[in-house]
Amino acid sequence: MSTNLLKGKVAIVTGASAGIGAATANLLAAQGARVALVARRRERLTALCEEIAAAGGEAAAFAADVADEAQAGTTVAAVIAHFGQVDILVNNAGIIRPGGIVGADAADWRDTFDINLLGPMYWSRAVLPGMLERGAGHIVTVSSNAAKGPGAPTNNAYAASKHAITAFCGGLRREVGPQGVRVTIVEPGATHTEIAETIAEPGARDAMREHLYNSTAMQAGDIAAAICYALAQHPRVNVDEIWLTPTK
Ligand SMILES: NC(=O)c1ccc[n+]([C@@H]2O[C@H](COP(=O)([O-])OP(=O)(O)OC[C@H]3O[C@@H](n4cnc5c(N)ncnc54)[C@H](OP(=O)(O)O)[C@@H]3O)[C@@H](O)[C@H]2O)c1
C-alpha cells in the first residue's frame, strides 16, 4: 500500500459520526486526505473535526441526511466549494431495522432502502460529474456480510438492501470504470460499533449487542484499514470487493 497516493485527496465519508465511518475518516485524515464528514448529528461531526485537526489532519463537517435526494446535491456542491473537488466517496451510512416479513412495518423497509441503497445512489450520482470530467475518482460502498448469504430471516430488509448494493456497485463499475472511476464494495461481518444501540426493540437490540460486543467481533478500525487499502492502490488497480469476517 502506498499511503502517499491519498495525500491531498478530497474524500467524503458518509456516516462519519460513529463506528466504521468515524474510523475511516480518522484513518484517511491520518494518511493526508482532506475529509468531508457527513451524517445527521452535527455536534459529533464537529467534535471529530476538532479531533482530526488536533492530530494534524484536515476535515470539515457537513450535516446531511443521506436519504434526502436534494441534500446529496447541495452537500456535494458545498464540499466542492470548500475543498475544490471530490476525489473519493465512501458510502458508509447505514441502518438496520431487524425483523422478518410477517408482521413487519413497511415504513422500516422504506427507511432501510432509502438510507442503505438510495443514499449511495444519490451520493454517487452527485460526485460523478467531476470524477468523469477528470477521468479519475473512487467510490467505496460499505455493504455487509449479509449481502453474501441466502437472505436473512431475522433481518430481511437489511439483507435485501445489502444484496441490492452488490448489483448497484457491479453495474456502476461497468458504467464508469472504463472512464477511470473505480468502484469498490466492502462487506464486513460483525464489527463492534454503535449500530446495536440504534435498534428500538429490546429483544433484537440485546441479540445484536451479544453479536457485536464480544472479543471475537472486528473493530471499526479494521474495516477502515480495508477501505483505505482499496483507496490507496494505484489508479490502474480496482479492488472490486473486500469481504471481512471475524477469525473466530
Ligand atoms: N457494525 C457491523 O457489524 C456491520 C456489519 C456489516 C456492515 N455494517 C455496515 O457498516 C456501515 C456503518 O455501520 P456502523 O456499524 O458503523 O453503524 P453505526 O455505529 O450505527 O454508525 C452509522 C452511521 O450512519 C449514519 N447514518 C445513519 N442514517 C443516516 C442518514 N439517514 N443520513 C446520514 N447518516 C446516517 C449515522 O449518523 P447519524 O445518526 O449522525 O446520522 C452513523 O454515523 C453501515 O452501512 C452498516 O450496514 C456494519
From TrEMBL:
Record SMART domains: PKS_KR
Domain of life according to the entry: Bacteria
One annotated GO molecular function: oxidoreductase activity, acting on the CH-OH group of donors, NAD or NADP as acceptor
Pfam families documented for this protein: adh_short (PF00106)
PROSITE patterns per UniProt: ADH_SHORT
GO cellular component terms, A-Z: membrane
Keywords, alphabetical: Oxidoreductase
Domain Ketoreductase positions: 9-191
Keyword Lyase: no
Family label: Belongs to the short-chain dehydrogenases/reductases (SDR) family.
Official protein name in the record: SDR family NAD(P)-dependent oxidoreductase
Organism, scientific name: Mangrovimicrobium sediminis
